[in-house]
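To: structure desk
From: M.T.
Subject: fold request, one chain
Message: Could you run this one when you get a chance? Sequence is below, nothing fancy, just the single chain.
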Amino acid sequence: MTPFALPLKLINCHTVREFDETIQEHFGQLNTQELSLIRSYFYEEKLSRNDFFTKSGKICDRLSIVRSGILRIYALTDSKEITQWLSTENFLVTEVMGFFYEQPNRWNIQAFTDVELLTISKANYRQLCQEFPKWNEIEKRFIVKCFAMLEDRVFTHLSMTAEERYERYFQQNKELFNQVPLQYIASVLGMTAETFSRIRKRQSESS
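Reply: Done. Structure tokens follow.
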């Protein structure tokens, strides 16, 4: 599962607009009053590079919108480190099994750069569900969207060649190729660093 940061500090008008657009992008159309209510449960949060949003084995206690920066979602096994995802601007970030199902996290979520977030705590999330019953239906849509994203990733890994996966990810995330170690991207794409390097070299020679 792709891990997906949402009393409020005053948010400036530009941030309000960003927040409303992101909420509607992920959760569907909401009216002004509904957006204002949802916004009131979020607060601004900053993480410094290498700070942890949450760690494996813990239970994630918040969900956030990434305003700026990069978060890396990864796990450590006996033999290697697996980067599962890189969350960037306007992504939602949480550890789904921890936040929604109270299960210990499978993944570490760590700030790769300095990060700015709009965050909702688990306690405030529960309160929002009680005050705004429509949110329960919104939550269902969000979880369905998470599973759809997971299904899409499984499909691409099973149906696409390594070259096709590389090209698709490159077209969608060109800026990341100059921002993070390429072995992280290779891991996201389910290939070794050596395979990734060969494909990258061929792509560079053909362009």
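Reply (cont.): Confidence is low (pLDDT under 50) at residues 1-13. Let me know if you need anything else for the meeting.
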